[in-house]
Design brief:
The protein is 30% helix and 28% strand. With 327 residues, the protein is α+β, with helices and mostly antiparallel strands. The two termini are 29 Å apart.
Length: 327
């Protein structure tokens, strides 16, 4: 299923009264269509079995997204027109990057639905789908380069599924990847210096816990890779794991919030990141020991210089837990 390719085959629909679309069937789900309206917006048309009124999902409009249920539509397929009733999901931005993102996320939505979904099945799936887009009105919770480096580590890992599974659900969590006794914190620097800011808690974990710090140099470059490209690569590697794909998209939308439109286009040099990636043990990094932090002092942060430290060879280290084996 590639909704972008299907969408690109369609010409804009002609002006008409009511809902008028040019559409093409989705091969894996013949009761669903990807379509285009007269403004060039991508549209999903979901055919519903046992459609009923008064269900729990109402028509709504969000930033970039509009949903209408039980709509009689005029659709043109292979030069033949007909009238059918659909649930109509319209993406209202004309930004090509965002349109492609919408179509990729829509692929995940469609995979969660049966071939002839009931109204309730559509309600349940779309509620989850919509939650992703609600966050586009929120303030960003992390920087673009911070998110990019975390995605880079996932994409560049030997097992992206493992890293995605342990990736933080909330950007403000203490560690970027956390499996309990194994944790990974990703740090980046655009000045080509291994000087990073840490919280006291990150370098003073509980007894028996191992923390690896992934240090990466990052530089913006027009010929680099964007967040969108990294996401597509990760999605290809995790295949049809719908839950992890949903988690990936949810975190990206919550992290970037209302900056998504600008942020997903920014590109960073992939080769510089890959060549500079080094791992360090938290035990080797200079820090303020907890014993020196007064009881009534909290959220202590400081910079540490990792330049002269010996990196950890993650391929040779003894990795007893799943997280480190996934790097």
């Amino acid at each position: 299923m590639n909704l972008i390719e299907l969408y690109d085959k369609l010409e804009f629909a002609e002006e008409g009264s009511g809902k008028t679309f040019n559409a093409i069937r989705i091969p894996e789900q013949p009761n669903f269509r990807v379509a285009v309206n007269n403004e060039g917006n991508p549209v999903l048309l979901l055919s519903v079995a046992n459609a009923v009124k008064g269900n729990t999902l109402k028509n709504f409009r969000l930033k970039y997204l509009q949903l209408e249920q039980n709509v009689e539509c005029k659709i043109t397929e292979n030069d033949k027109s007909s009238y059918q009733t659909f649930t109509v999901i319209t993406f209202t931005s004309d930004d090509r990057n965002l349109q492609e993102y919408f179509l990729r996320i829509s692929e995940t939505l469609i995979k969660t639905l049966s071939n002839k979904p009931t109204q309730q099945q559509i309600v349940d799936s779309i509620n989850k789908f919509v939650e992703v887009f609600r966050s586009l009105a929120d303030t960003p919770t992390n920087t673009v380069h911070g998110l990019w480096t975390e995605l880079f580590l996932i994409e560049n890992s030997s097992n992206p599924k493992i890293l995605l599974n342990y990736w933080h659900n909330l950007p403000e969590e203490r560690f970027d990847f956390n499996s309990g006794l194994e944790k990974i914190e990703v740090k980046s620097n655009s000045n080509f210096e291994r000087i990073h800011t840490f919280s006291a808690e990150q370098l003073s974990p509980s007894i028996g816990t191992q923390v690896l710090v992934a240090s990466i140099f990052i530089r913006q470059h027009n010929n680099g890779q964007s967040i969108q490209q990294l996401v597509q690569s990760i999605t290809n590697k995790i295949k049809d794991d719908i839950e992890l794909t949903e988690k990936l998209n949810n975190i990206i939308f919550r992290t970037l919030g209302n900056s998504l439109e600008q942020s997903i286009k920014i590109k960073f040099d992939y080769n510089i990141a890959k060549d500079s990636l080094r791992f360090f043990s938290q035990q080797d990094i200079s820090k303020i020991e907890e014993v020196h932090i007064p009881d009534k002092v909290s959220e202590v942060r400081f910079k540490s210089d990792l330049t002269d430290l010996t990196p950890i060879d993650v391929r040779a280290m003894k990795r007893t837990g799943e997280l480190f084996r996934g790097i």
